[in-house]
Amino acid sequence: MSTQQDSNSVDTRPPATNAPRKSGLATTAQTQRASFTTAIGLVIEREVMVRLKSKAFMVSTLLSIVLFGALVAVSGSLPTLFSSTDKVAVTSAGAQAVEGIDGIELVSVDSTDEAKTLVTSEEVAAAVVEDPASPVGVTVIAERSAPESLTGALSQVPTVELLDPHAPDPGLTYLIGLGLGLVFFMSAVTFGTTIASSVVEEKQSRIVEILLASTSAKVLMFGKVLACSILAFAQIGLTALSVLIGAAISGNDLVLGKVTEPIAWFIPLFIVGFVMIASLYAAAASMVSRTEDLGSTSSPIMMLIFLPYMAVILFSSNETVMAVMSYIPFSAAVAVPMRVFLGTIEWWEPLVSLLILAITTILALLLATRIFERSILQSGPKVSWRQALTRSKK
Amino acid sequence: MITLDSISRSFGDKQVLHDLSFSIGSGRMTGFVGSNGSGKTTTMRIILGVLAADSGRITVDGETITAAHRSAIGYMPEERGLYPKMPIIDQLIYLARFHGLSRHSARRRGLELLEQLDLGGRPSDNLEAVSLGNQQKVQIAAALIHRPRALVLDEPFSGLDPVAVERTLEVLKDFADTGAPVLFSSHQLDLVERLVDDLVIIDGGRLVAGGTADELRRQRSTPEWILQTDSDMGWVREIPDIRVVEFDGNWVRFAAPNADIAETVLHQAITVSSVKSFAPHTVALNRLFQEVTQA
Questions:
Q1: pTM check: above 0.90
Q2: Contact at 8 Å (CB) between B88 and B123?
Q3: In sequence order, which ranges of chain A are alpha helices (DSSP H)?
Q4: What is the interface size between A and B, counted as CB pairs within 8 Å?
Q5: pLDDT tens-digit series, residues B208-221
Q6: Interface test with A, best of B111, B178, B197 (most A CBs within 10 A)
Q7: Residues 6+ apart with CB under 8 A from B147
């Protein structure tokens, strides 16, 4: 082996320089360090490519796209799936009474007795026969209970005056909060964890030291935050697209109509809020040396996302709480669209929320950079949040 | 030439480097020696700019070091690391591009290096799929990928088998022969002794000795001689100014302040017995290192 070394020894000679005894370090036309933006671009490119090549990531992305799209597509036909047509036996008077009621199939009979026989034999769900004693002139005969569609339609309904026929359905408000909150919470946690494990991977494998000799900690952190944000937005964008397609297929005008404005607010709030959370996750991950320790530094961030999310859902009908929540950066992305949907928000309020969120995000980025730079080279036991903030420079 | 001038650094209350100054000469292999925790890794990180110094200055050929200078240094950290789940060639390209190489020229350079390191056949394997020895070779390739003009290597031989050690040595010597400064730290003092032109010894973050290896041997130790005859030489102990270091019947190693006094021992030996051999003994760096760090 050693005898071959001369023939295939590694060519380490730097290109000839005019002053061979100088180190040549000053004449580095060829090896100019990549600029800040180029370097960030390199980090983003690698991070994105690694995820795109990861089967787990692609499978979960495709699954969520297909699942959400299919769910919305099917939701339009849900009412018809769960209701069935009841057969109802009617005498001639009964037929008059039930005229115009949807969802029943009429079976004509000649007498009350014949109707009773059909009900007993379960050939029909119920029967409507004349009964002079009844205030509505007919009696409903059923074996155990009469179909609600029938009794409801036959009952006398008092006059209803709707003061605000377009007032939002509280159930729907709750669903929107739940849905947007879920999107926010799931993507923040999923991609937060992704960014965290990518930081720890570099720390654990120690490549971070080579990287830091080639570029700065800022580049690494910004690159990772941006890469994760791009992936998250792409994933959610595709999911949203499939939801819209699903809605178009099912003719679900709810998705297409009323929630457009809330969603239009959700998007910018989500984008800015996501960057804030991703940078905090990057900082949390920089404080540990092993994946196993990640939970302890990232759980405070998880709480910061989870508690406001819970509060928004629990207090979705409490206007005061919702007003406050729409100014808290961690819950704004969900609370603002909900209030927009409810119509309880002034036109300028979402803008103020967005501004507060943007400022908080910038502060979070600065804080995260500070922590990241001070902790990324620390190996061994995890660095506490307090230590990370008070430690001297890199 | 890279020069460190009064570099100090503390972590919290603990000062790990105290006014450390030394130079890495162009075309010189400089060995960087010190016990664990003496500040070697911190020093190297400061040279690379991975850590900042609290005070002091680093210059390259007289100019204060810049990011461009640093980008032209090949670095191998003590704790090895590359991406385990990334193809070898891809990570080399990735690292090279931070130094301004185009993707195309980085690929060409990477393939060339892998070929020269006998890894040519498998550039697109994931790093974790190749043997540990080959992973080390990739690490060397990673330090050389951007055609550096200087090398800083932290414990380049640790964990290497003898063949790989020889291989790395070849690489480093070739590199230094082109006129590039090379600094490397090592615990394997026998290797350092064989390899270095210059030596920097630190202890507790302070420079304790620096200079060429020969100079240090001369300065730092009383010259010693080994004398072997065919009879017992207990009488050597009686001679003034002579200190017997090691004794085994008719074999003795002794220290003398100068060659003349050593020769008086030889003369006396000739008169009482038949001399088999007499020669100056070079103190191994191992002992020199112990002497220096314990002094």
A1: no
A2: yes
A3: 36-53, 55-75, 78-82, 92-97, 112-120, 148-154, 170-204, 207-214, 217-250, 253-256, 260-286, 294-314, 319-325, 329-342, 349-375, 385-390
A4: 175
A5: 888 887 787 777 66
A6: B178
A7: A14, A15, A30, A31, B109
